[in-house]
Amino acid sequence: MKYGIIGAGAMGYRYGVMLQENAGVEVDFIDTWEPNVEKVRELGGVSVARDHENRRVVPINIYYPEEYQGHPDVWIIFKKQMQLDEELARDAKAELFHDDQYVFSAMNGMGHFEKIAQYFAPEKIICGTAMIATRLDGPADVDFMGEKGAEVMHLAMYASKSVPSNVTEFITDLKKAYLGPIVVEDYLGMCMSKVVFNAVVNTLCTMFEVQMGQFIEYEGVPQMARQLFDEAYDACERAGIYLIETRQEEIDSVTTTSHALKYHYPSMYQDFSKGRPTEVDYINGYIAKIGREHDYVCRTHEFVTQQVHLAELMRKYH
Ligand SMILES: NC(=O)C1=CN([C@@H]2O[C@H](COP(=O)(O)OP(=O)(O)OC[C@H]3O[C@@H](n4cnc5c(N)ncnc54)[C@H](OP(=O)(O)O)[C@@H]3O)[C@@H](O)[C@H]2O)C=CC1
Ligand SMILES: CC(C)(CO)C(=O)C(=O)O
């Protein structure tokens, strides 16, 4: 199968480079961030390291949407939630999307699949989540965090419980790429399981400006995590959303994942530290919204969402 990556950022490079190098498939990258596209063209590829080591340039094909003439079988979208509407509109205007194509995304937060469904038929949408950590340190400069083979991701169809036969080839390519795909039936429970995880780790690491390994040094983390998970699970259960992990599994995962990805600054911090808006409204804010819609106030998530916005605003004084 041939793949088109929309958003040559941290995760776009991660998926594209691993598919190209490990699964041996054809991959094209589409990006709108000019310094990034121009840097790739100057270097002849993207500079890739793993846990700060073995940095090398991987040759890739990169295009602005308006330049692209190819026809991938699957689009893989990795933009920040706040950028997605504009990106999809620009890509559609450049006539990139075709009825026969599938589309996959494992962005954090919620709301992106509804936006993608404005351009693709529901049965063509493959939903994902990725417990895969990647840093974008500058244009055309990425660092794949975590040991080789530790990558884990989940996927589910947007419109059905089972995977159609032509999507199995995509799953095979993800396996060959060592991206660690696990197929589940319910996309909503799958996505919310990742949202509640990010609502603890991304948000707290961002507020205290620390890496995951530093965050987990504090012995009170499991207790803080339990409070946030309990509220999120209570809201989801009232909304009829059943997560694919139990509350205890999520709490345990905060500890194990934070140790495994100890040098990683979660993607929310990567935005925060560069003065950009964060995805907090799509993570803690989304949990709070589900709660409110079902007569349940997620007091801690509402407070934490405000705290992150306060911290965003206060950056101007630092
Ligand atoms: N990174 C990770 O480890 C993980 C991320 N995710 C999710 O995947 C999605 C994509 O995230 P991710 O790949 O991290 O994001 P990116 O690395 O793609 O960053 C998003 C965009 O921000 C802008 N940008 C990035 N770095 C800079 C910089 N140094 N200076 C100026 N602009 C910059 C660029 O667009 P522009 O110029 O248009 O602003 C870029 O395309 C998100 O939903 C995220 O939550 C999920 C799992 C893990
Ligand atoms: C890698 C991980 C899982 C850390 O929370 C993530 O989703 C992110 O950085 O946004």
UniProtKB/TrEMBL annotation:
<keyword id="KW-0560">Oxidoreductase</keyword>
<dbReference type="InterPro" id="IPR013332">
    <property type="entry name" value="KPR_N"/>
</dbReference>
<keyword id="KW-0521">NADP</keyword>
<dbReference type="InterPro" id="IPR050838">
    <property type="entry name" value="Ketopantoate_reductase"/>
</dbReference>
<dbReference type="InterPro" id="IPR036291">
    <property type="entry name" value="NAD(P)-bd_dom_sf"/>
</dbReference>
<dbReference type="InterPro" id="IPR008927">
    <property type="entry name" value="6-PGluconate_DH-like_C_sf"/>
</dbReference>
<dbReference type="InterPro" id="IPR013328">
    <property type="entry name" value="6PGD_dom2"/>
</dbReference>
<protein>
    <recommendedName>
        <fullName>2-dehydropantoate 2-reductase</fullName>
        <ecNumber>1.1.1.169</ecNumber>
    </recommendedName>
</protein>
<dbReference type="GO" id="GO:0008677">
    <property type="term" value="F:2-dehydropantoate 2-reductase activity"/>
</dbReference>
<dbReference type="Pfam" id="PF08546">
    <property type="entry name" value="ApbA_C"/>
</dbReference>
<feature type="domain" description="Ketopantoate reductase N-terminal">
    <location>
        <begin position="4"/>
        <end position="148"/>
    </location>
</feature>
<dbReference type="GO" id="GO:0005737">
    <property type="term" value="C:cytoplasm"/>
</dbReference>
<dbReference type="InterPro" id="IPR003710">
    <property type="entry name" value="ApbA"/>
</dbReference>
<dbReference type="Pfam" id="PF02558">
    <property type="entry name" value="ApbA"/>
</dbReference>
<dbReference type="GO" id="GO:0015940">
    <property type="term" value="P:pantothenate biosynthetic process"/>
</dbReference>
<comment type="pathway">
    <text>Cofactor biosynthesis; (R)-pantothenate biosynthesis; (R)-pantoate from 3-methyl-2-oxobutanoate: step 2/2.</text>
</comment>
<dbReference type="InterPro" id="IPR013752">
    <property type="entry name" value="KPA_reductase"/>
</dbReference>
<comment type="function">
    <text>Catalyzes the NADPH-dependent reduction of ketopantoate into pantoic acid.</text>
</comment>
<comment type="similarity">
    <text>Belongs to the ketopantoate reductase family.</text>
</comment>
<keyword id="KW-0566">Pantothenate biosynthesis</keyword>
<feature type="domain" description="Ketopantoate reductase C-terminal">
    <location>
        <begin position="190"/>
        <end position="311"/>
    </location>
</feature>
<dbReference type="GO" id="GO:0050661">
    <property type="term" value="F:NADP binding"/>
</dbReference>
